[in-house]
UniProtKB/TrEMBL annotation:
<feature type="transmembrane region" description="Helical">
    <location>
        <begin position="505"/>
        <end position="528"/>
    </location>
</feature>
<dbReference type="GO" id="GO:0140359">
    <property type="term" value="F:ABC-type transporter activity"/>
</dbReference>
<keyword id="KW-0813">Transport</keyword>
<protein>
    <recommendedName>
        <fullName>Protein white</fullName>
    </recommendedName>
</protein>
<comment type="similarity">
    <text>Belongs to the ABC transporter superfamily. ABCG family. Eye pigment precursor importer (TC 3.A.1.204) subfamily.</text>
</comment>
<dbReference type="InterPro" id="IPR043926">
    <property type="entry name" value="ABCG_dom"/>
</dbReference>
<feature type="transmembrane region" description="Helical">
    <location>
        <begin position="396"/>
        <end position="412"/>
    </location>
</feature>
<keyword id="KW-0547">Nucleotide-binding</keyword>
<feature type="transmembrane region" description="Helical">
    <location>
        <begin position="424"/>
        <end position="446"/>
    </location>
</feature>
<dbReference type="GO" id="GO:0030659">
    <property type="term" value="C:cytoplasmic vesicle membrane"/>
</dbReference>
<dbReference type="InterPro" id="IPR013525">
    <property type="entry name" value="ABC2_TM"/>
</dbReference>
<dbReference type="InterPro" id="IPR003593">
    <property type="entry name" value="AAA+_ATPase"/>
</dbReference>
<dbReference type="GO" id="GO:0005524">
    <property type="term" value="F:ATP binding"/>
</dbReference>
<dbReference type="GO" id="GO:0005886">
    <property type="term" value="C:plasma membrane"/>
</dbReference>
<dbReference type="Pfam" id="PF01061">
    <property type="entry name" value="ABC2_membrane"/>
</dbReference>
<dbReference type="Pfam" id="PF00005">
    <property type="entry name" value="ABC_tran"/>
</dbReference>
<dbReference type="GO" id="GO:0016887">
    <property type="term" value="F:ATP hydrolysis activity"/>
</dbReference>
Length: 645
């Protein structure tokens, strides 16, 4: 299969990339910046951006073509360059969550927890297992090396039934107008005792190992680490490969010690394959080209520099790169790879038998459309548990704010001055609950979106499970906070002492707090980042605030803005609280010299253009806005995941 030339201005990113990766081998993709390393990895794992056009090509495992990210996710792991975690969890809590959603549903809980302990020990995370993962700039957490090892533990430490994937072949395909890689596999036949040893070791490993995928992709696993930690990280990958996994990774500037750990290297330049083979064969290949690697020189640095395009000598460098790539394509190794890829491509069209599962049955990748290991209920329990842990916070600040409000408005009486002060305190109830909850949700939810996206596409849980759990996990928090706030401030201010009125206030303030939370969800789900959410949230809140009946009398709202007032939870909350406060008040102190006194609570409501008959209607509208904003937030999040797919 050859990529057809595009008659457009598209930039060719990958060109005729073919290759093969075997179980038990660590394959490293090397090249200078812009060589196409990450693009190749993204093309393999269905992670290319919409602007990247894949014209043709194939990914296959065991001779079975893989057509969707879900099918691949059920059989592989992808460790991204950025380590994305919920920073408020400890290392052990994070691994427990991974075990709950990624291990086969048939595995008992005690066996999952036992495996978590084993993984913590295997990857040297015992000392930091009870340490918070941390949030840069906010919460001090574990070190960079521990974070990277936690990433590997998350991806490869789960119990599952034994799986076997043989050779992973990179078939010819086209990205832009360039071939991309695919994968085909059949168990590689070995002779005698070697085959028995390897197979027995693999089965023992799978019996003891959280999803344990047979195929693993890593993007820049040593990024940001010093040479010592980088060596340790690659050693972990090497150990995984030696246990029978197929490990493919991109890597930037490996040390000579790290380079020596690789079983195979794929050198890329200008989107083409410059070499694919063992590190020793790479040195021999370039020696035969008349470009020997100097002694006492890091081969990785030498190859990358040799294949780089120097800004001042672009044309000359590109000619040299083309010569090297063409030479490898014509070499015995290059021809063998092309033949193997061609044979795999032909076999795919004639023999589509599927993935071998412990030598007992064949399961077609196409049939494994659902990547979720856990049931819907199990996903719900696990995500709810994690959301609850991450949302727990001390309510001391809420008490202090309520106490401050109570002191400022302490002991208000039913007088003309008291009417204005009480109404002001009531409106502050609403504004405090609104801004506090909206900004709390915008910061937390947006910051979790990258984690959600990665875990969702790794087949850990569904979008509806995540959104529903986030919603329900935060309900206790956003019920306790307004109850504490109202309980502290209500009687200090001197609001209506009737216990029924107090309970009504608790209900209304709690409803407003949760409507504001729902609004924050909506803003965070439609925003691409936290700064964007913070920049668009306040300008949208301000009009709702103005139509709350405190700054602008409801009777004087212009007709063309009436529709906007119907979406204002300030309007419904303020009207309900003011009615709750003043309804039934028959006497308000008045100065004899004041002819414009408000003598009753009814007069206060009339002045504000509030209708006493709207109390129940206001509460119903608050419930309606709560559901409305959350529904928009959910569909916005769903559209983002569908767009990514």
């Amino acid at each position: 299969m050859q990529g057809s030339a595009q008659q457009s201005r598209r930039k060719h990113i990958l060109k005729n990339v073919s290759g093969v990766a075997y179980p038990g081998e660590l394959l490293a993709i090397l090249g200078s910046s812009g060589a196409g390393k990450t693009t190749l990895l993204n093309a393999l794992t269905f992670r290319t951006t919409p602007s990247v056009v894949i014209e043709n090509g194939m990914r296959a495992l065991n001779g079975v073509p893989v057509y969707s990210s879900h099918a691949l996710a059920s059989l592989s792991a992808y460790v991204q360059q950025d380590d994305l975690f919920i920073g408020t969890l400890t290392v052990k809590e994070h691994l427990i969550f991974q075990a709950l959603v990624r291990m086969d549903r048939t595995i008992p809980y005690r066996q999952r927890m036992r495996r978590v302990e084993e993984v913590i020990s295997e990857l040297a995370l015992t000392k930091c297992q009870d340490t918070l993962i941390g949030i840069p700039g906010r919460i001090k957490g574990i070190s960079g090396g521990e974070t990277k090892r936690l990433s590997f533990a998350s991806e490869v430490s789960a119990l599952s039934s034994p799986k076997y994937i043989g050779r992973t072949r990179f078939l010819t395909g086209t990205l832009g107008s360039h071939p991309i890689l695919g994968a085909d596999a059949r168990p590689r036949k070995k002779r005698g005792l070697d085959s028995i040893k390897i197979h027995g070791f693999r089965k023992a490993f799978y019996r003891n190992v959280l999803t344990n995928p047979p195929l693993m992709f890593c993007d820049e696993p040593t990024s940001g680490l010093d040479s010592f930690m980088a060596y340790n990280v690659v050693s972990v990958l090497k150990g995984m490969a030696q246990r029978g996994k197929t490990v493919i990774c991109t890597i930037h500037q490996p040390s000579s010690e790290v380079f020596a750990l690789f079983d195979k290297v794929l050198l890329m330049a200008e989107g083409r394959v410059a070499f694919l083979g063992t590190p020793k064969d790479a040195c021999q290949f370039f020696l035969e080209l008349g470009a020997p690697c100097p002694s006492n020189y890091n081969p990785a640095d030498f190859f990358v520099q040799l294949l780089a395009v120097v800004p001042s000598r672009e044309e000359l460098c590109r000619q040299a790169v083309d010569m090297i790539c063409d030479t490898f394509t014509r070499s015995d190794a290059g021809v063998a790879i092309e033949k193997e890829a061609a044979a795999a491509s032909t076999k795919i069209t004639t023999d589509n038998k599927g993935i071998y599962i412990d030598g007992e049955s064949d399961i077609s990748i196409q049939d494994r459309r659902c990547p979720y290991k856990a049931s819907w209920c199990a996903q719900f329990r696990a995500v709810f548990w994690r959301s609850w842990l991450s949302m727990l916070k001390e309510p001391i600040l809420i008490k202090l704010v309520a106490l401050l409000l109570g002191i400022v408005y302490f002991g208000q009486e039913l007088s003309q001055e008291g009417v204005m002060n009480i109404n002001g305190a009531i409106f502050l109830f609403l504004t405090n609950m609104t801004f506090q909850n909206v900004f709390a949700v915008i910061n937390v939810f947006c910051s979790e979106l990258p984690v959600f996206m990665r875990e969702h596409f790794n087949g850990m849980y569904r979008t509806d499970v995540y959104f529903l759990c986030k919603t329900l996990a935060e309900v206790p928090i956003f019920v306790i906070i307004p109850v504490l706030f109202t309980s502290v401030a209500y009687y200090m201010i001197g609001l209506n002492p009737d216990p029924v009125r107090f309970i009504n206030t608790l209900i209304i303030v709690t409803l407003v707090a949760n409507v504001a939370t729902s609004f924050g969800y909506m803003i965070s789900c439609v925003s691409a980042s936290v700064p964007m959410a913070l920049s668009i949230g306040p300008p949208i809140i301000i009009p709702f605030l103005l139509f709350g009946g405190f700054f602008l009398n409801m009777g004087s709202v212009p007709v063309y803005f009436k529709w906007l007032s119907y979406l204002s939870w300030f309007k419904y909350g303020n009207e309900a609280l003011v009615i709750n406060q003043w309804e039934g008040i028959e006497s308000i102190e008045c100065d004899r010299n004041n002819n414009t006194c408000l003598h009753t609570g009814h007069a206060v409501l009339e002045t504000l253009s509030f209708d006493e008959g709207n109390f129940i209607f206001d509460i119903i509208c608050l419930f309606g806005l709560l559901i409305f904003f959350r529904a928009i937030g959910f569909f916005a999040l769903l559209m983002r995941t569908i767009g990514k797919e």
